[in-house]
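user: can you give me the structure for this one chain? tokens are fine.
assistant: on it. calling the predictor now.
[tool input]
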Amino acid sequence: MAAFTVQKFMPKSYCFPLLSQCWYCGKEIDGYVFHISGNECDIGCANQQIKRSRDILGVILGDVDSFVGYGLGFDKPEFFWYIFVESQEALPSLREEFSAAQLGFSIYPLITEIPVLGEPEMIPAIPEKFVQGGTSIGHLRAGTTGTLGGIMRIGEKRYALATASIIAPEGSRIGDSVVHPSIPDSPKRGIIMGKLSAISRMIPNTSNDMDAALVEIFDDIKTSPWIKNLGRPGDLSEPHIGMTVRKSGRSTGFTEGKILCTDVKMKVVIRNKLYFLQDHFLAISDMGSFAETGDEGSFILDNRNSVTGLLEMVFHGMAVCSRASLVFERFGLVSPYCFEFDEEEADD
């Protein structure tokens, strides 16, 4: 069961159409009215204040050890910030920091420790008839375990996408072998499916917007663009608060949930080193865990099967995800073209 069962979910378009004056600029609001700490504003001023407060929070996050992270929430017309902090005792001093910086937003605190990339338990597996998203993958020599996000193409070549922390851990290099299933899940039956061809690895103690890597798949490996239990992805979509999402992961299989918050910046620990994730979003399920350790690398899809994100870290049953549009742009993947190739449709 996820540690948090917050029910602050809102469709993106839900606001109150009223005739009001913007508290920030004084102009009459032409359209929907939004609230920041009870003050009415239009979306232009709301976005300016969100950016300003996000910059302030980013500075405080780097300065205060007990400050774990934050994310933008939206409940009815009100924008607010989720604040993740290590202990209740740290909140008073942190609130003083916010007050001194004139943050100007309501704060919703959640107590938690800094998330750590864990080692998943073995799940016995054999190679799929067609290698596809949602299945076990790992770096051959390092013996890591995670989830293959999806199979795509660039030109006539096929590639697998997953998180760099799983398929291209520290010390790995371009050309290294990647195996399906991972060595821990299938010590004697895994197949070398391809070689590392591109890596966007995170740098410790700095802000990182993604953690991803591409595997060039060998010609003799049979693949499918379908993701296990989800089908073929169609295009890309941008995350928004309250959006219905789903994923297929190596550890928990198919799960469905919603996006809790966007504009997430968070401290994480990977192999005893501290990293900062930024421009991420959090997905959560109210039916238990949305994800568990070993699901890292999964694609996050919306209810139209468009790819919304890449699952990079599991956090109290929630998924910390980078934006798919950013990942695809970084690697030169063009949707929906990259999903359109004629190979067998794998069984769901």
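assistant: here you go. The CA atoms of residues 115 and 268 lie 5 Å apart. The chain has three domains: 16-111, 131-225, 244-331.
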